[in-house]
Amino acid sequence: MKQRQSSIASVAAIAAATIIFSLLMIALSGSGLTAALKGFARGAFGSSYSIAEVLVKAVPLTLCALSVACGFYSGFTNIGAEGQFYIGAVATTCIGMYLPFLPGPLLILLSLILGFAAGGIWAAVPGWLKARFGISEVINTLMFNYIAIGIVGILLQTVLKDPKAFFPVSSYMPEGMWLPRIIPGTRLHAGLVIALLSAAFIYIFIWRTWPGFRIRAVGSNSRACRCAGIGVGSSIMLSSLLSGGFAGIAGSVEIMGLQHRLLDGMSPGYGYLAIVASLLGGSNPFGIIAASIGIAAIQVGAQGMQRSAGVPTAISNIILGGVVLLILLRPMIMKAIGGKAHD
Amino acid sequence: MTDTLSLIASFASSALRQAAPLSLAGLGVAYAEKAGILNIGEEGIMLGGAFAGFITAYFTGSLALGILGGAAGGIVISMIHAFLSIKAKANQTISGLALNFFTLGLTSFLFLLAFGQGSSLPSIANLKPVAIPILSSIPFIGEVLFRQNVLVYVLYIAIAAFSVFFYRTEWGISLTAVGENPQAADSAGINVYRTRYLACLVNGIFGGLGGCFITLGQLGYFQEDIVSGKGYIALVAVILGRHNPILIFLSAAMIGLAESLQFSMQAMGVQLPSQAFSMLPYVVAVIVLLFSIGRSTTPAAVGIPYERDKR
């Protein structure tokens, strides 16, 4: 009971520290506090348009964070969602460019499947290297990000380049492939539904199926699994495949729902931000949805704050990084509050 | 003939300047990893150094103080990581990533506070190359190696010092022991925590120097995300260099050479996507990791918090 109290208290302490720290930063920037907060609220929740903008950002973030979580369940630390996102986007672009004659719904379905497969394979390579040879996936997935971004750059200057465009971008996808808009007059697209369905799928798969159970078992104690005859390697492979798959879907959805073509620097670091979102969401699919919306709101709100009160948008990175640092300190905070820490 | 030679010399000299920040940071990373500290946050450390170095040099007008400021900036960020990974026993990958976000935001925020959103970037005079007497008059080699700025000479000294330190001193052996098997090192009377804190301090200094090399030695100005991934490339250089100071320098030099080659090929109008070069180091790093199976140079306890009372 006492442990539970100190656990809640530590969360409250972290939240309070974050809020006080953020207010302090705003005050430090010399902007009026009320103007800044008003700008934040209006920017993030002021109108249906701003709410839609938050959700537009939350869609790829949720999918990437689900990706990070899928790896986390088996102990596969996936730093590579950024690269898997791009590979998924490339797969979708290829489908749109080479099969434009297919009917729209079929194109969308095919894109999601191939986006999943492409991202999944991109992550399964480091997964296989970890499962088979014990090579650290942290560095490998990170390297694969840069390789993926390099591949996108090369493709955009060669085979996928729109010959009419000056900048390295692909041509637009056939319109039948564009995901429908959910709220008219905004950019919010049906990718939101895909993200929610993905969260539900992962929840069921990880907590209600035998392979999901094995993945979690490997994540909590791989040595015990080896002794009990659970295939550790195959579980890590499956988890990395799923992990990359959902990041691939994120890239696919971003093309079909928002950008409608492939371009350099399409992701403003969703893959890295996703690690923060997954951590804040406690690696729980539904927690991740909430965390992703929260992070997107902070980012969109920070833009509003800059417009109305001149607070630099850099503040959102400080807040997000700071929250994670505080969360890492949580065991120590709990110890300080509750007297005794649990191990 | 002499023309071609001087062209090659200036090319090599520019490659060396590209490689220097990577090598400086790489030496720090190698030191930290030898003690068992994984630092994905090298990018943040370099950014802290780049920012603090520039700000100090700008407001004091002294590049020497700027260099000290750069090292101090690196130390601050690195010690946060040290506290989290040693004392709080946090996940070091997450801590490093969080520090990257935090530093990225903090440096841009403070920079805007100090200078406002002006149309022109505040700038300072770069570190000037210093010719070393006698050595610099050696043809070719002198021009490439001994007409550089002071931080490059710091790098030379550091490479030599680290090479001796890692492999020829008892201290270096204890450092390796702490990274490979902290329990055994502890039983042998080595203070694991102190060794790791010290390693983070060294990593902070060299990461900070690598960062301020970018602002003070190359560009003379600061802007948001100015390190732009060089911290991650420094990690690559350490993998390619297999934690050996001289090999780290050579790997960084190869990466620097690829970068310079890419610039001059673009200048010559060669139609080749620049990414073909820029992604090469990462591809090679993956291959090196693959071929190091079974004889990895990565210390066994990298990234694992040490808890005295646990087996």
Short overview:
The complex is a heterodimer of chains A (343) and B (311). By secondary structure, chain A is mostly helical. Chain A is built from 14 helices and no strands.
Protein described:
Chain A has helices at 2-28, 33-45, 48-73, 81-98, 104-133, 137-157, 191-208, 210-220, 222-228, 232-259, 270-280, 285-309, 314-328, 330-338. Chain A has a single domain, classed as ABC transporter involved in vitamin B12 uptake, BtuC (Orthogonal Bundle). Chain A is built from 14 helices and no strands. Chain A is mainly alpha-helical and 343 residues long. In chain A, helix 5 (104-133) runs antiparallel to helix 6. The two termini of chain A are 15 Å apart. Chain B has 311 residues and is mostly helical. A two-stranded antiparallel ribbon of chain B has the order 1-2. In chain B, helix 1 (2-34) packs across helix 10 and helix 2 (42-60) packs across helix 10 (230-240). Chains A and B meet through helix 6, helix 11 and helix 13 of A and helix 3, helix 4, helix 10, helix 12 and helix 13 of B.
Indicate the CATH topology of chain B. ABC transporter involved in vitamin B12 uptake, BtuC
Mean pLDDT of chain A: 91
Which percent range describes the beta-strand content of chain B?
under 5%
- Gross morphology of chain B is globular
Give a count of the beta strands of chain A, DSSP E runs of length 2 or more.
0
Structural class of chain B: mainly alpha
CATH class term of chain B: Mainly Alpha
Instruction: Give me the Rg of chain B, rounded.
Output: 20 Å
Rg from Cα of chain A: 21 Å
Distance between the termini of chain A: 15 Å
Uncertain residue segments of chain A:
none
- The CATH architecture of chain A: Orthogonal Bundle
Describe the SSE topology:
The complex is a heterodimer of chains A (343) and B (311).
Chain A: H1 2-28, H2 33-45, H3 48-73, H4 81-98, H5 104-133, H6 137-157, H7 191-208, H8 210-220, H9 222-228, H10 232-259, H11 270-280, H12 285-309, H13 314-328, H14 330-338
Helix pairs in contact in A: 1-13, 1-14, 2-3, 2-12, 3-7, 3-10, 3-11, 3-12, 4-5, 4-6, 4-10, 4-11, 5-6, 5-10, 7-8, 7-10, 7-12, 8-9, 8-10, 11-12, 12-13
Chain B: H1 2-34, H2 42-60, H3 63-87, H4 92-115, E1 130-131, H5 141-145, E2 147-148, H6 150-168, H7 170-180, H8 182-187, H9 192-219, H10 230-240, H11 245-267, H12 275-278, H13 280-291
Antiparallel strand pairs in B: 1-2
Helix pairs in contact in B: 1-6, 1-9, 1-10, 1-11, 2-3, 2-4, 2-9, 2-10, 3-4, 3-9, 6-7, 10-11, 10-13
